[in-house]
Amino acid sequence: MREDVLLRKLLADGEGTGEERRFQLLNGCFRSLRNANTVSKAEAVKALRLIDSLELSMRKQREIAEMTKRQTKEYEEMAERVDKEIAISREKMTQAKVDLAAARLVRKNRKEYALLVGMIEDLPSRAETTRKLDEIQEELTQQQERQQQLEARLSERRNHLHALNIILANFQKLLADEDNELSNDTPSTEIGEKDDGDDEEHSHRERSCDTADVG
């Protein structure tokens, strides 16, 4: 454990010329100065030099601490300025995005406007459009009249066809009635002819009998 402590002290003290080494030397000098019989002028001068060196080192450390504090403050102020600049840059970027979107919209509107202008220029004038509309209206009126005439002819032909169908139906009915009458008259005619034959045969027999009686 002691070796680890010494190793850490040596690593912190470097080559043994640091503050801890000076305090150790000063402590040794104070111990030797407590014994008045063994005090020497060289040791007293050495102790004073160590004290001066420690005071100088303390001033240096104080200056370093103050300088570090000032630098820390400057860094903090610089960080604040950087943060403010970053915030301003972000606001500028946001505004730039808005401006870019507006510029794109304006550009799009300009393109659409140019396209509409081209389409309008390609379209005929109002007078020509009115003339074409009048021509189309006149042609439409003629087509309507033709359609009415065709519908009238078609209606007339339908009426004729309906009348013809009625005539054909009546004619077919008449033919059917005549066929029925003919079919009904045929059996009675055959019966009448048979009766006439029987009467003639009976008369012939009667004449034969009369002839026999006369003889």
Automatic annotation (TrEMBL):
Q: Which GO terms describe its biological process?
A: mRNA processing
A GO term from the CC aspect = THO complex part of transcription export complex
Q: Which InterPro entries match?
A: THOC7/Mft1 (IPR008501)
Question: Which residues lie in Basic and acidic residues bias regions?
Answer: 201-215
What are the entry keywords? Coiled coil, Nucleus
**Residue ranges the record marks as coiled coil:** 126-160
Q: Is Transferase set as a keyword in this record?
A: no
Chain residue ranges for the region called Disordered: 179-215
The places in or outside the cell where this protein is found are: Nucleus
What is the protein's given name?
A: Tho complex subunit 7
